[in-house]
Amino acid sequence: MRISDIARIASKTLKGRWAAVPxxxxxxxxxCLCYAGAIITTVGxxxxxxxxxxVAGGSGKLTDExxxxxSKLPGVSAVTPAIDVPAKIAIxxxxxxxxxxxxxxxxxxxxxxxxxx
Length: 117
Hints:
3 helices, 41% helix, single chain, 17% strand, 2 domains, alpha+beta
Protein backbone atom coordinates (compact mmCIF):
# COMPACT_ATOMS: atom_id res chain seq x y z
CA MET A 1 0.00 0.00 0.00
CA ARG A 2 1.39 3.38 -1.00
CA ILE A 3 1.29 6.51 1.11
CA SER A 4 -1.17 8.10 -1.29
CA ASP A 5 -3.55 5.15 -0.77
CA ILE A 6 -3.33 5.55 3.01
CA ALA A 7 -3.97 9.30 2.71
CA ARG A 8 -6.98 8.69 0.46
CA ILE A 9 -8.50 6.18 2.92
CA ALA A 10 -7.85 8.54 5.84
CA SER A 11 -9.48 11.45 4.03
CA LYS A 12 -12.60 9.39 3.33
CA THR A 13 -13.03 8.58 7.03
CA LEU A 14 -12.88 12.25 8.03
CA LYS A 15 -16.36 13.70 7.76
CA GLY A 16 -17.24 17.33 8.14
CA ARG A 17 -15.25 20.39 9.01
CA TRP A 18 -14.92 19.42 12.66
CA ALA A 19 -12.43 16.70 11.76
CA ALA A 20 -9.79 19.37 11.17
CA VAL A 21 -10.11 20.76 14.70
CA PRO A 22 -8.09 18.00 16.47
CA UNK A 23 -5.41 18.18 13.78
CA UNK A 24 -5.15 21.96 14.13
CA UNK A 25 -5.12 21.68 17.93
CA UNK A 26 -2.29 19.14 17.80
CA UNK A 27 -0.26 21.34 15.44
CA UNK A 28 -0.79 24.45 17.57
CA UNK A 29 0.07 22.64 20.80
CA UNK A 30 3.29 21.23 19.31
CA UNK A 31 4.30 24.70 18.15
CA CYS A 32 3.60 26.15 21.61
CA LEU A 33 5.56 23.39 23.35
CA CYS A 34 8.56 23.85 21.08
CA TYR A 35 8.43 27.63 21.46
CA ALA A 36 8.17 27.39 25.26
CA GLY A 37 11.07 24.95 25.33
CA ALA A 38 13.23 27.34 23.33
CA ILE A 39 12.37 30.22 25.66
CA ILE A 40 13.12 28.17 28.78
CA THR A 41 16.46 27.06 27.34
CA THR A 42 17.43 30.62 26.45
CA VAL A 43 16.46 31.97 29.86
CA GLY A 44 18.40 29.16 31.53
CA UNK A 45 21.52 30.06 29.56
CA UNK A 46 21.15 33.74 30.47
CA UNK A 47 20.70 32.92 34.15
CA UNK A 48 23.76 30.67 34.21
CA UNK A 49 25.86 33.39 32.54
CA UNK A 50 24.65 36.74 33.89
CA UNK A 51 27.75 38.56 32.63
CA UNK A 52 29.03 38.69 29.09
CA UNK A 53 32.78 38.27 29.32
CA UNK A 54 34.86 38.94 26.22
CA VAL A 55 38.49 37.87 26.54
CA ALA A 56 40.95 39.27 24.03
CA GLY A 57 44.50 38.01 23.97
CA GLY A 58 47.56 39.85 22.82
CA SER A 59 51.32 39.94 23.10
CA GLY A 60 51.57 43.49 24.45
CA LYS A 61 51.17 44.72 27.98
CA LEU A 62 47.86 46.04 29.23
CA THR A 63 48.28 49.20 31.26
CA ASP A 64 45.78 51.06 33.40
CA GLU A 65 45.58 53.76 30.71
CA UNK A 66 44.57 51.13 28.13
CA UNK A 67 41.88 49.80 30.45
CA UNK A 68 40.54 53.31 31.02
CA UNK A 69 40.47 53.90 27.26
CA UNK A 70 38.57 50.68 26.58
CA SER A 71 36.04 51.46 29.31
CA LYS A 72 35.16 54.73 27.54
CA LEU A 73 34.07 52.92 24.37
CA PRO A 74 30.31 52.93 23.68
CA GLY A 75 28.58 49.74 24.78
CA VAL A 76 31.27 48.76 27.30
CA SER A 77 29.95 48.63 30.86
CA ALA A 78 33.10 47.50 32.70
CA VAL A 79 36.66 46.44 31.90
CA THR A 80 39.12 44.33 33.87
CA PRO A 81 42.35 42.59 32.91
CA ALA A 82 42.22 38.80 32.67
CA ILE A 83 44.66 36.92 34.86
CA ASP A 84 45.97 33.57 33.56
CA VAL A 85 46.91 31.15 36.33
CA PRO A 86 48.52 27.80 35.49
CA ALA A 87 47.03 24.99 37.58
CA LYS A 88 47.26 21.23 37.97
CA ILE A 89 44.16 19.26 38.90
CA ALA A 90 44.39 15.73 40.25
CA ILE A 91 41.41 13.49 41.01
CA UNK A 92 42.48 10.07 42.14
CA UNK A 93 45.13 8.79 39.77
CA UNK A 94 44.15 11.13 36.95
CA UNK A 95 45.67 14.58 36.61
CA UNK A 96 45.55 17.41 34.11
CA UNK A 97 47.44 20.64 33.62
CA UNK A 98 45.43 23.66 32.57
CA UNK A 99 45.39 27.43 32.57
CA UNK A 100 42.58 29.17 34.43
CA UNK A 101 41.57 32.63 33.28
CA UNK A 102 40.34 34.83 36.08
CA UNK A 103 39.18 38.38 36.45
CA UNK A 104 39.22 40.90 39.21
CA UNK A 105 36.35 40.05 41.58
CA UNK A 106 35.38 43.69 42.01
CA UNK A 107 34.42 43.67 38.31
CA UNK A 108 31.30 41.68 39.19
CA UNK A 109 28.49 43.31 41.09
CA UNK A 110 27.24 42.19 44.45
CA UNK A 111 30.13 41.52 46.87
CA UNK A 112 31.45 38.46 45.11
CA UNK A 113 34.99 39.49 46.04
CA UNK A 114 34.04 38.76 49.66
CA UNK A 115 32.57 35.37 48.81
CA UNK A 116 28.95 36.54 49.16
CA UNK A 117 26.45 35.20 46.61
